[in-house]
TrEMBL record:
<dbReference type="InterPro" id="IPR050086">
    <property type="entry name" value="MetN_ABC_transporter-like"/>
</dbReference>
<dbReference type="InterPro" id="IPR003439">
    <property type="entry name" value="ABC_transporter-like_ATP-bd"/>
</dbReference>
<keyword id="KW-0472">Membrane</keyword>
<keyword id="KW-0067">ATP-binding</keyword>
<dbReference type="GO" id="GO:0005524">
    <property type="term" value="F:ATP binding"/>
</dbReference>
<keyword id="KW-0813">Transport</keyword>
<dbReference type="InterPro" id="IPR017871">
    <property type="entry name" value="ABC_transporter-like_CS"/>
</dbReference>
<protein>
    <submittedName>
        <fullName>Amino acid ABC transporter ATP-binding protein</fullName>
    </submittedName>
</protein>
<dbReference type="InterPro" id="IPR027417">
    <property type="entry name" value="P-loop_NTPase"/>
</dbReference>
<keyword id="KW-0029">Amino-acid transport</keyword>
<keyword id="KW-0547">Nucleotide-binding</keyword>
<comment type="similarity">
    <text>Belongs to the ABC transporter superfamily.</text>
</comment>
<keyword id="KW-1003">Cell membrane</keyword>
<feature type="domain" description="ABC transporter">
    <location>
        <begin position="2"/>
        <end position="235"/>
    </location>
</feature>
<dbReference type="Pfam" id="PF00005">
    <property type="entry name" value="ABC_tran"/>
</dbReference>
<dbReference type="InterPro" id="IPR003593">
    <property type="entry name" value="AAA+_ATPase"/>
</dbReference>
<dbReference type="InterPro" id="IPR030679">
    <property type="entry name" value="ABC_ATPase_HisP-typ"/>
</dbReference>
Amino acid sequence: MLKAENVRKVFGSTVVLDGVNLSVQPGEVVSILGSSGSGKSTLIRCINGLEKLDGGRITVDEFDVSKPRELAEARKRSGTVFQLFNLYPHMTALQNITLAPIQVLQQPKAEAERKARALLAQVGLGDRGDAYPAQLSGGQRQRVGICRALAMEPRYLLLDEVTSALDPEMTADVLGILADLARGGTTMVFVTHEIEFARQISNRIVFLDKGKLVVDLPTAAFFSAKGGMAVPRIAQFLS
Ligand code: ADP
Ligand code: MG
């Protein structure tokens, strides 16, 4: 299980995460909604250890991200895809995907490449392994980014607005891949502005507002008049 308990994060005098509790079970798809600045990215960055907590605790399968000796294990279990394509420009798609499996998991190169090619085929890029990022469209680059995260065989896939820099057609492309992964049982924590898509693929929806987790509800309840929609801030956000 991925678990955040009473997480607090402060930047200067701004409380960015204020007592956030969240748990994600293997197999679940949990979407995080909330307006810009509500703390969604910071929560993701805390989960993968890119930000230090100012209070509370985050564990990934019992490994505490705040303990230096446990962080590496916690990180192996979660893979993150960010909004902006952060592929290495001087490496091909295949090299981008195989880098960490070879260096961190010590997979033999041939095995890492075989797995990477299978992942690329799964996202419709079977013939683009030798392309450099500049030779790929934004949607294709983001699909390579998803492959790069999946190549580490994470138990949890964290996605932070992976489609917000894409045009509608490429967005549909990438969301299609994520829907396939959700159906295949990949556990996901999905930060998004794609509300309708979140509704289709999520088991649960959590809503962040000014660093506080306002609700955590099963998807149907989140969108129901007596559930999430009864919270004025959420009704306003969804309209
Ligand atoms: P979201 O992803 O929901 O848009 P963020 O987590 O990016 O929100 O940001 C939450 C708040 O934290 C914002 O007010 C933002 O300005 C602030 N913030 C985020 N990162 C930093 C940082 N490195 N230094 C200072 N303030 C930051
Ligand atoms: Mg963000």
